[in-house]
């Protein structure tokens, strides 16, 4: 190569060198962003995943409440780095008892909720999607197994605290022969955990923030909290609580089935009942005033409440009389009942109603039940109740609470929403607290 040529090549190389250096710096920074490293300001950068689970005995609607706590928490974590909330699959749940519709486990959130809508509050992903991304095993770097302090109150004072200590009860994780830690993990075999720590915890979920930030730096970017029901809401009934709650729209199919039933049996639809909402929850305004369909709804919690809360649960006869009286006062004749009671109990309830009043229950075909499962049937009932002219719930049932919230979002008058059945010997029992939405 002659001299002229070489000079020319060098002239080209100088900008090429600067160009390469520039992109190298950009790439390195991007790597810092991607690789979950700790960068200058001590923040965790890169994608971190938070998984959580609850005490297996908890039901669907308490689980929805815990989701709100965790979603608000992850939103705060996001101020310190890129965090994604991994949605724990549904099932099996103790209250999902139908045996004729197959296994009710490993169910994704999209079966019940509009996950695009959830995403508008905080980054979420289904566990199954994370598992298919990981191809092989998903390694949880650190798992915090929360437990209550044996004595939460010291000198009569309640204070927020946490402490890493010995496990009070043996956590449901075990070391396998090859040294890996395994657990139930929603029935997935492909998940392992590197380290499990028991943490006695008392306080708001916010208190977990330093623990999570510290450990994601040291241990890695996949962290899990088990017994996620132990931390309290940071701001129960506050703006963020309601944002997450409003983002929890149900799946299209469940709204569709509820609309079909309302139209066919209750002559009710969103337009005439003034129960329409904008398609995006962020466009909702406080100025909504629902009227509701021409029916009364009662949620009659039975099963374990019959013995666990016997002093607060009405007999079927009293429940029928209460529903009938309410319908009469509102000049209505249709009564819809959502219940986990048996067929015989519902027949009994019906027998206590005067012929003037018609009782409606949601009893879908086998094909629909097999499709939407017990969880879907319950949600359809909740949607129907949330659009009734008047609602009466069961004492301290989270199933009733979720209906009340839905009615708050739709803008029903409080006295048509925050009601509950009293027990037979207590006609004037205390009515539910009015948790008004804040926007
Ligand atoms: C005492 C506690 O009560 C808590 O229940 P509670 O707040 O009512 O409400 P959940 O936590 O949802 O649990 C009750 C479950 O029972 C079914 N269920 C209750 N009411 C109805 C209904 O009207 N229709 C249909 N289709 N299903 C109903 C449904 O699967 C629901 O998720 C439980 O989470 C705890 O495990 C514990 O049992």
UniProtKB/TrEMBL annotation:
<keyword id="KW-0119">Carbohydrate metabolism</keyword>
<protein>
    <recommendedName>
        <fullName>GDP-fucose protein O-fucosyltransferase 2</fullName>
        <ecNumber>2.4.1.221</ecNumber>
    </recommendedName>
</protein>
<keyword id="KW-0294">Fucose metabolism</keyword>
<dbReference type="InterPro" id="IPR045130">
    <property type="entry name" value="OFUT2-like"/>
</dbReference>
<dbReference type="GO" id="GO:0046922">
    <property type="term" value="F:peptide-O-fucosyltransferase activity"/>
</dbReference>
<keyword id="KW-0325">Glycoprotein</keyword>
<comment type="pathway">
    <text>Protein modification; protein glycosylation.</text>
</comment>
<dbReference type="InterPro" id="IPR019378">
    <property type="entry name" value="GDP-Fuc_O-FucTrfase"/>
</dbReference>
<keyword id="KW-1133">Transmembrane helix</keyword>
<keyword id="KW-0256">Endoplasmic reticulum</keyword>
<feature type="transmembrane region" description="Helical">
    <location>
        <begin position="12"/>
        <end position="30"/>
    </location>
</feature>
<keyword id="KW-0328">Glycosyltransferase</keyword>
<keyword id="KW-0472">Membrane</keyword>
<keyword id="KW-1015">Disulfide bond</keyword>
<comment type="similarity">
    <text>Belongs to the glycosyltransferase 68 family.</text>
</comment>
<dbReference type="Pfam" id="PF10250">
    <property type="entry name" value="O-FucT"/>
</dbReference>
<keyword id="KW-0812">Transmembrane</keyword>
<dbReference type="GO" id="GO:0005794">
    <property type="term" value="C:Golgi apparatus"/>
</dbReference>
<keyword id="KW-0808">Transferase</keyword>
<keyword id="KW-0333">Golgi apparatus</keyword>
<dbReference type="GO" id="GO:0006004">
    <property type="term" value="P:fucose metabolic process"/>
</dbReference>
<keyword id="KW-0732">Signal</keyword>
<dbReference type="GO" id="GO:0005783">
    <property type="term" value="C:endoplasmic reticulum"/>
</dbReference>
């Amino acid at each position: 190569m002659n001299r002229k040529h070489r000079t020319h090549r060098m002239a080209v190389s100088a900008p090429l060198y600067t160009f390469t250096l520039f992109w190298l710096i950009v790439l390195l920074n991007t790597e810092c962003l991607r690789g979950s490293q700790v960068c200058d300001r001590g923040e965790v950068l890169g994608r971190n995943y938070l998984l959580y689970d609850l005490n297996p005995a908890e039901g669907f609607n308490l689980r929805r409440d815990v989701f709100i706590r965790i979603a608000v928490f992850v939103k705060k974590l996001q101020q310190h780095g890129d965090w994604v909330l991994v949605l724990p699959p549904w099932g099996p749940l103790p209250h999902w008892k139908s045996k004729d519709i197959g296994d009710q486990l490993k169910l994704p959130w999209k079966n019940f909720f509009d996950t695009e809508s959830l995403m508008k509050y905080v980054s979420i992903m289904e566990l199954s999607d994370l598992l298919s991304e990981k191809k092989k095993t998903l390694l949880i770097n650190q798992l915090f197994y929360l437990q209550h302090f044996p004595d939460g109150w010291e000198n009569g004072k309640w204070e927020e605290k946490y402490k890493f200590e010995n496990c009070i009860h043996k956590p449901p994780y075990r070391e396998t022969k090859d040294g890996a830690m395994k657990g139930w993990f929603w029935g997935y075999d492909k998940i392992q955990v590197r380290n499990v720590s028991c943490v006695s915890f008392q306080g708001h979920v916010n208190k977990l923030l330093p623990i999570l930030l510290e450990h994601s730096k040291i241990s890695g970017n996949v962290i899990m909290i088990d017994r996620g029901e132990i931390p309290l809401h940071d701001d129960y009934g506050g703006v963020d609580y309601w944002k997450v709650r409003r983002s929890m729209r149900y799946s299209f199919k469940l709204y569709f089935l509820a609309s079909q039933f309302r139209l066919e049996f209750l002559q009710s639809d969103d337009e005439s009942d003034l129960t329409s909402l904008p398609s995006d929850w962020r466009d909702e305004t406080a100025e909504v005033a629902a009227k509701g369909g021409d029916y009364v709804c009662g949620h009659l919690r039975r099963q374990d409440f019959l013995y666990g809360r016997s002093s607060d649960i009405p007999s079927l006869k009293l429940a029928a009389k209460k529903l009938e009286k309410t319908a009469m006062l509102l000049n209505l004749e249709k009564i819809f009942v959502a219940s986990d009671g048996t067929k015989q109990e519902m027949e009994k309830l019906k027998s206590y109603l005067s012929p003037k009043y018609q009782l409606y229950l949601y009893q879908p075909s086998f094909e629909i039940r097999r499709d939407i499962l017990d969880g879907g049937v319950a949600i359809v009932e909740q949607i129907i109740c949330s659009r009734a002219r008047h609602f009466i719930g069961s004492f301290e049932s989270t199933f009733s609470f979720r209906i009340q919230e839905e009615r708050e979002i739709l803008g029903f008058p409080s006295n048509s929403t925050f009601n509950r059945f009293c027990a037979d010997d207590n006609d004037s029992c205390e009515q539910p607290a009015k948790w008004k939405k804040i926007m």
